[in-house]
Structure to design on (231 residues):
């Protein structure tokens, strides 16, 4: 919910930082301004401020990319939440199914994958290797959207009987089962008490869904209930 007196400079600065962090290559000031719908002079001031803080830097062509301080911020946030450290073990256990193992959160209308492992891939290679994807096109995104009230979904996506029906089914069965753009199926569950979800994706028959859902729920319970060994 937007506060009564939002700090627009902070909002725009974080938008610039997020755009840099999600870009696969350095971007210019005017290009970033067009992407964000902001004035180039404002974006230029924000980028220079981010560079001063070490959160952005310029390459030889004076285009901007994430700076070294963003890695410090990422490390500090992961350490503070302990989420990834709790999740690694349970996620690795899910590799036994020979399917894609994914773990992610919502960022506005996008799914941000913290972990995305193809069959046979190690955890080290699975961390942060996949970018943003539209939430409505992913099992993890749909599972998390189903936790939001209908009013919030309508405000964000507009009226849609198809989306409303899909989210209603997820709420009823307490897991998401969707077909992705690669024609793979994804089954996903939300971690109780958190804003993250995990899923398994690939080719599997309906008869296998209960087994996969049970395994995902066990993993979600382990991730969501930190114990001494998980800290």
């Amino acid at each position: 919910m937007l506060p009564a007196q939002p700090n627009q400079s902070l909002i725009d600065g974080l938008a610039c930082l997020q755009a840099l962090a999600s870009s696969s290559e350095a971007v210019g000031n005017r290009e970033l301004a067009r992407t964000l719908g902001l004035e180039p002079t404002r974006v230029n001031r924000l980028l220079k401020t981010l560079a001063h803080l070490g959160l952005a830097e310029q390459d030889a062509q004076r285009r901007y990319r994430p700076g070294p301080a963003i890695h410090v911020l990422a490390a500090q946030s992961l350490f503070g939440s302990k989420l990834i450290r709790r999740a690694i073990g349970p996620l690795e256990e899910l590799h036994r199914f020979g399917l894609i193992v994914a773990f992610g959160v919502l960022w506005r209308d996008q799914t941000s994958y913290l972990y995305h492992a193809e069959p046979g891939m190690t955890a080290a290679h699975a961390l942060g290797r996949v970018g943003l994807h539209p939430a409505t096109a992913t099992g993890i995104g749909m599972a998390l959207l189903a936790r939001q009230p209908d009013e919030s979904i309508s405000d964000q996506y507009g009226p849609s009987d198809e989306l409303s029906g899909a989210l209603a089914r997820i709420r009823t069965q307490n897991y998401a089962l969707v077909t992705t753009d690669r024609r793979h199926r994804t089954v996903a569950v939300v971690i109780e008490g958190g804003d993250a979800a995990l899923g398994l994706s690939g080719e599997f028959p309906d008869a296998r869904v209960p087994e996969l859902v049970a395994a995902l729920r066990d993993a979600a319970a382990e991730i969501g209930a930190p114990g001494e060994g998980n800290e």
Q: What stands out?
A: Residues 8-71 form a domain with the Arc Repressor Mutant, subunit A fold (CATH 1.10.10.10). The beta strands are 56-58, 64-66, 100-107, 110-117, 132-134, 176-179, 185-190, 196-202.
